Recover the amino acids of this structure.
């Protein structure tokens, strides 16, 4: 198995000028291709910081992070943007869809930044929407879709670039139980197709759907037991 | 992300907030259209004055009496004295003294009531010599001008201005007679319209031109003083030399120096300069006010862009998370600001051109839209959009994706 994520001795310190906060204190972790991993932990545990580093939204203070074999721990902001674009598909708690655009335009957005030609973008966006079962909703704006449907559009957007990693940050936090099941089933399907998924959550029944859990507590990973 | 893509995104953002975009552009629209209108008004007035002055004649110099300084030190005003005479005109016409002078037309002017049967019309009476026609760049619509022989004999003939002719007679005026101060004059010709717009006080088309000897006989004027001497220089290039020749000649004849000269010599250029300098001052002043309003419009763009950055902080975060580099984000907001500026400029130009069509009949002033001012205004509004977009755009670019995404 090739490793998608390799963290070694990763620390993150926030310096507010008044106090220094050690959000991560030496995290080591490895996630292989095709794995479905839940990152769990109470709020304030460093879970969000870990997610930011995994998502290349932030860089570690020390230690190294290899994403799909590439050392991203010392990259510039512009390089990180390119890595996020190529390697990572994000699913957020707030969906973060642009309200003024129809679903398919939201899904094609990462391809715009990857400089994919227009015609191909639309084709790939529609294909991704079909994968999440929303082919017939492609022209609907986010406001015309239910919460579960919006999150599925977001998943389609995350998948459209064929990223190495699907990173979901509390993807069910804003959904009712029916939509939650809906989205989690979608994740199960994707996992079965061989997608690497990292899911950050504080809900144990959500984490239970993953192959294994990384429990973050006080800035370090406590145990990585199979769920 | 290509520029085309960025432009599309910018246009979309402008469209997404239609009312706000329209209000933001309004400042630029008003600024640009007022710049175009004020510059157009100034230009129009300048063109009008230029046309009037050049209609006076080509390579024209005008000698007027005046600028006398009496022994008590009181300096008489322009045209207040009768120091110019026919012999001055003869001297100027002397080729050996003033070789750069082509023709000379001494002129006396007065006011007279012309009577044609039952019609009575008050007009200005111009007594002059045959050279007047060419010196003043005039031509005849019908009939003929009087000759030197008729000047010498004091023949009772008259040439009417086009307005005067139409006021006095019906049908062809040539051959008819009119009465002026009891003297009967035969109309021998009618002048073509001068082409210069008339003012309320004087018109180049409302006059009666007749031999200077006849004019003196009718008005009962004695002596040989004249109101002004019109001089045509040989060419535009040598007009300066002609000016100097006449000045020296008249100073010698009148035994005066430049300090106490009893005549004033003006050229078309000096008339134009005087008229235009006034116009220019006004245009610059009004244009300055308009430019300030354009600047205020630009500040409006910046204000809205800053609001837009704050309001769309989550969108910026999302775009960054999906792979937009700071440069792409900066570009997006810059393009958006430029689109606002440019669209404002274009609408402003449309409004300005529309105003230039609607305004002239209302204020009775010509407005000429200058291409340069139009292009300049568009370029300025684009530059304003870019200039005032830089700060909001770099603020957007500096946002970290986490902070941007986290914001509620």
């Amino acid at each position: 198995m090739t490793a998608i994520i390799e963290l070694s001795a990763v620390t993150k310190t926030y310096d507010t000028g008044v106090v220094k906060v050690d959000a991560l204190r030496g995290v080591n972790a490895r996630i292989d291709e095709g794995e479905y991993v839940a990152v769990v932990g109470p709020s304030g545990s460093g879970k969000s910081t870990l997610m930011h580093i995994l998502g290349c939204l932030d860089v570690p203070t020390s230690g190294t992070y290899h994403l799909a074999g590439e050392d991203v721990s010392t990259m510039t902001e512009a390089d990180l943007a390119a890595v996020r674009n190529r390697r990572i598909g994000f699913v957020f708690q707030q969906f973060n869809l642009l309200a003024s655009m129809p679903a398919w335009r939201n899904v094609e957005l990462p391809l715009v930044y990857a400089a994919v030609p227009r015609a191909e973008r639309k084709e790939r966006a529609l294909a991704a929407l079909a994968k999440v079962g929303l082919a017939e909703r492609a022209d609907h704006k986010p406001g015309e879709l239910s919460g579960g449907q919006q999150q599925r559009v977001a998943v389609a957007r995350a998948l459209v670039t064929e990223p190495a990693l699907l990173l979901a940050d509390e993807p069910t936090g804003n959904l009712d139980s029916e939509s939650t099941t809906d989205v989690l089933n979608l994740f199960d399907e994707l996992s079965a197709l061989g997608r690497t998924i990292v899911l950050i959550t504080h809900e144990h029944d959500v984490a239970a759907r993953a192959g294994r859990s990384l429990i973050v507590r006080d800035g370090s990973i406590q145990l990585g037991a199979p769920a | 992300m290509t520029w085309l893509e960025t432009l599309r995104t910018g246009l979309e953002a402008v469209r997404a907030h239609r009312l706000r975009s329209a209000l933001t552009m309004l400042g630029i629209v008003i600024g640009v259209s007022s710049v175009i209108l004020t510059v157009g008004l100034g230009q129009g007035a300048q063109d009008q004055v230029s046309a009037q002055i050049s209609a006076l004649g080509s390579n024209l110099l005008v000698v007027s009496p005046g600028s006398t300084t009496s022994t008590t030190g009181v300096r008489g005003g322009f045209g207040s004295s009768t120091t110019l005479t026919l012999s001055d005109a003869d001297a100027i016409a002397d080729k050996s003294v003033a070789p750069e002078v082509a023709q000379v037309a001494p002129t006396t002017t007065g006011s007279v009531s012309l009577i044609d049967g039952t019609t009575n019309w008050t007009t200005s009476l111009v007594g002059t010599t045959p050279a007047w026609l060419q010196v003043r760049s005039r031509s005849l619509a019908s009939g003929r001008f009087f000759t030197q022989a008729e000047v010498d004999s004091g023949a009772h003939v008259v040439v009417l201005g086009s307005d005067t002719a139409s006021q006095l007679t019906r049908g062809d005026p040539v051959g008819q007679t009119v009465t002026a101060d009891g003297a009967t004059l035969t109309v021998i010709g009618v002048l073509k319209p001068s082409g210069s717009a008339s003012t309320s006080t004087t018109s180049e088309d409302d006059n009666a031109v007749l031999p200077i000897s006849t004019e003196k006989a009718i008005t009962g004027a004695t002596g040989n003083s004249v109101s002004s001497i019109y001089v045509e220089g040989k060419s535009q290039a040598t007009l300066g030399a002609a000016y100097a020749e006449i000045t020296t000649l008249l100073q010698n004849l009148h035994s005066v120096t430049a300090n106490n000269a009893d005549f004033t010599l003006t050229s078309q250029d000096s008339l134009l300069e005087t008229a235009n300098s006034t116009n220019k001052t006004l245009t610059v002043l009004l244009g300055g006010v308009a430019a300030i309003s354009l600047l205020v419009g630009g500040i409006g763009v910046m204000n809205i862009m800053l609001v837009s950055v704050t309001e769309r902080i989550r969108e910026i975060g999302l775009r960054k998370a999906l792979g937009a580099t700071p440069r792409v984000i900066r570009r997006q907001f810059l393009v958006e600001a430029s689109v606002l500026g440019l669209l404002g400029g274009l609408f402003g130009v449309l409004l300005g051109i529309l105003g230039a069509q609607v305004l002239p009949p209302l204020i009775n002033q010509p407005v000429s839209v200058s291409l340069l001012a139009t292009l300049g205004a568009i370029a300025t509004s684009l530059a304003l959009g870019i200039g005032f977009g830089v700060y909001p755009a770099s603020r957007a670019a500096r946002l970290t994706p986490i902070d941007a995404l986290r914001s509620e």
Notes: The mean pLDDT of chain B is 83. Chain B touches chain A at residues 1-2, 5, 12, 16, 314-315, 317-328, 400-402, 405 (CB under 8 Å). Residues 84-261 of chain B form one domain. The beta strands of chain B are 60-65, 101-116, 119-128, 140-143, 157-160, 177-180, 183-191, 207-211, 228-233, 263-267.
